[in-house]
Amino acid sequence: MTLSHQLGSYKRNYGMVRLVKELENEQKGVNETHELPRLIAFYLPQYHPTAENDGWWGRGFTEWRNVVRARPLFAGHYQPHIPADLGFYDLRLPEVREAQAGLARQYGIHGFCYYHYWFNGRRLLDRPFQEVLRSGRPNFPFCLCWANENWTRRWDGLDEQILISQEYSESDDLAHIHALLPSMTDSRYIKVSGKPVLLVYKTSLLPNPSRTADVWRRAAQREGIDLYLVRVETFADGVDPTAIGFDASVEFAPDWANTGIPVMHGRVGRVLSKLGIVPKAYTNHAVYEYGTLVGNMMRKQIPCYKRFPGVMPSWDNSSRRARGAVIFRGAEPTLYEAWVSAAIERARQRFRGDERLVFINAWNEWAEGNHLEPDLKNGRAYLESTCRAINAGPVPGKHEIAKSDGENFRLRQW
Fold first, then answer.
1. Following DSSP, what letter does each residue of 27-53 receive, concatenated?
2. Among the listed residues 300, 291, 298, 373, the one whose alpha carbon sits nearest the alpha carbon of residue 335
């Protein structure tokens, strides 16, 4: 073969290799663009008796006792929330945990984020998760969120009465992370870029969050583990997580800075309540419009730091409180579906690969009227809405909650 033929063959082959490479890169870009976010649901491990709850609230207490005592407080108020498919379960039963995971998987939920309660080496409500860890079942992804508030008599409306307090220290940070590391080596543990995801509910309560993050990271790295630390953002506080040694934040729903104005507030509400024109519930509690919250959350400004979107199907904790509850009226699967669709799209556009996360509050917060698990009123409607939002994928239009008729909202797509 002559040199010119060799060069021609080389050019053709090189051109083909380059073309194939370009096509592979293009396809990689398409796959990267359309890769769906992972939806992770917060999970409450309250539904089993413990010695502490027996002492504080009476023998046999679980969250179900709060759930069943709820009553409607005004026309159209949905209470009590009664579980359907899974019933009033006990989380000590492996069959229940398997059924939960199976249901979540069926409707596209990627994993659970278990609330983790640690008080200076003392763990509360830990049995369900420890059994999941020991047994290897269910085979369903999980991560942990440290609920680092003081344990109070909040359910009795006595927030100031502390039952167990948090006492932070560097030595406790070290003991804490060593206790958590075994769970992070589990193959089911949710990771970002190979790093186990660990959430902290209120970093604002830590006396020195940067120190805690540093202690955790150094201890984990000595075991060959790099952490992915996430702070939960319950208010739109604008705190850059990297400024306190964390990697990202997650938008907790409801964001209390974006609830809107209560339906009945101020002097007018109090007068109407005294006259019997409106139920006292509107002044005894804070009643908001779910549609207003959804609209405000969807219009929130995107921060310069990493913040994973968060959504919630509903919220009503009046089963826990005789006064001072927060109720979002008008929650319905169609509004939730628009919200979760927008959250999925936002995560898809802002992040790449396995950093595309959306958090749902919650899988089973029954006493907060906030659950994806089926109930007698809605059945599996919220799960079905979640599944439709996932399967719809990227769409050319955008969902918007349009304001009309004062504080009432309707769904519009444009």
1. HHHHHHHHPPPEEEEEE----S--HHH
2. 291
Distances (CA, A) of 332 to 19, 44, 133, 278, 359: 50, 22, 35, 23, 19
Q: Residue 176 in contact with residue 116, Cβ under 8 Å?
A: no
For the CA atoms of 165, 171, 175, 177, the dihedral, rounded to the nearest 10 degrees, stands at 90
Q: Both ends of the chain: CA-CA distance in Å?
A: 63
Q: Under a CB-based contact definition with an 8 Å cutoff, are residues 230 and 198 in contact?
A: yes
* DSSP H or E run through 99: helix 94-106
Inter-CA distances, 30 with 23, 241, 388, Å: 10, 30, 21
Per-residue pLDDT of the chain (414 residues; tens, 9 = 90+): 443 444 344 334 434 334 334 434 433 443 444 589 999 999 999 999 999 999 999 999 999 999 999 999 999 999 999 999 999 999 999 999 999 999 999 999 999 999 999 999 999 999 999 999 999 999 999 999 999 999 987 655 455 688 999 999 999 999 999 999 999 999 999 999 999 999 999 999 999 999 999 999 999 999 999 999 999 998 878 899 999 999 999 999 999 999 999 987 656 556 666 656 677 888 899 999 999 999 999 999 999 999 999 999 999 999 999 899 999 999 999 999 999 999 999 999 999 999 999 999 999 999 999 999 999 999 999 999 999 999 985 433 333 333 333 333 333 322
Q: Quote the CA–CA distance of 51 and 124 in Å, as a whole number.
A: 10
Q: How far is CA 188 from CA 131, 205, 217, 266, 367, in A?
A: 14, 29, 21, 50, 28
Q: In whole angstroms, give the CA distance from residue 308 to residue 197.
A: 12
Q: Just give the CATH number of 37-413.
A: 3.20.20.80
Domain locations along the chain: 37-413
Residues whose CB is less than 8 angstroms from the CB of residue 260 and which lie 6 or more positions away in sequence, other chains included: 288, 289, 292, 293, 296, 407
DSSP run (H or E) holding 296: helix 290-298
Contact 5, 89 (CB under 8 A): no
